Amino acid sequence: SQYVCDNLRFLKEAVDDLLAAVAPSGGEGETTEKPDPEDLEFLCENAPGAVDEALQGMERITTIVKSMKNFAYRDAASEKKPQNLNQAIETTIVVASNEWKYCADMQTDLDPNLPSVPCNVGEVNQVVLNLIVNAAHAIRGIKPDGEKGVISISTKQYDDFVVITIQDDGGGIPEGVQAKVFEPFFTTKEVGVGTGQGLAIAHNVITKSHGGHLWFETESGTGTTFFIRLPLTAVQETAEAESKSESGDESQSA
């Protein structure tokens, strides 16, 4: 929003200068000072760009606000329902943009034919958000100022499950701590940067709440890839279980 405000201030000053230049004289015999040609040339060259940047900034602010509202709305839902994971991931990328946009370029390869995935999309959003933030921190920890890394996110279906991959080209996870990554309160980050709960909660959400798997591959100096595997059968199995339960209740009441 800062550059939107800066551009609008510039445009206001430009309009004020132009209005002052074309204003009628104050009285008989007084003349209006002609605008400096160099000032007019400067305004003509820069005003259109300022307008474009202000409009682009407002569009981006609108996109972020909508994404945050969508993210919050989905987070409030506790049921596991068929969800558009690609759309959820795109929303989460926007919500997390302040974490990664200054240190990494974001690349996505989202399967356009990905089926709806039965899940608590709010919980999955939080897991993806946590992994994006971790990826950004990993890149920030090794890249010189001004040099960007890459975060890549993809989705793909494999038979009766889908896999989300989140890859970074940060420093990787040291071999000596890899076995502890999903333990509560374990963190390699500086004090005040992480609580050590993010990956433990993410692992619990994916494995226990969704019957999926969360794992990673890492190489020192090359980066880390996290994999989220979610089954496609949860809704069908739940429906069958409810149907059997209802049939049993009817038999008992008969």
Itemize the secondary structure elements and their pairings.
Blueprint: H1 2-22, H2 37-76, E1 81-83, H3 85-95, H4 97-100, E2 104-110, E3 117-119, H5 121-140, E4 149-158, E5 161-168, H6 198-209, E6 213-219, E7 223-231, H7 234-253
Parallel strand pairs: 2-4
Antiparallel strand pairs: 1-3, 4-5, 5-7, 6-7
Helix pairs in contact: 1-2, 2-3, 2-5, 3-5, 5-6
Structural summary, described in words:
The protein is an alpha+beta fold and 254 residues long. It has 2 domains: 2-64, no CATH class; 79-238, Histidine kinase-like ATPase, C-terminal domain (Heat Shock Protein 90, 2-Layer Sandwich). It is 50% helix and 19% strand. The chain contains 7 helices and 7 strands; from the N terminus they run ααβααββαββαββα. The protein has helices at 2-22, 37-76, 85-95, 97-100, 121-140, 198-209, 234-253, and strands at residues 81-83, 104-110, 117-119, 149-158, 161-168, 213-219, 223-231. A 5-stranded mixed beta sheet has the order 2-4-5-7-6. Strands 1-3 form a two-stranded antiparallel ribbon. β4 and β5 form a beta hairpin. α1 (2-22) packs antiparallel against α2. The longest helix has 40 residues, at 37-76. The relative contact order is 0.10. Mean pLDDT is 78; it is low at 73-77, 191-196 and 238-243.
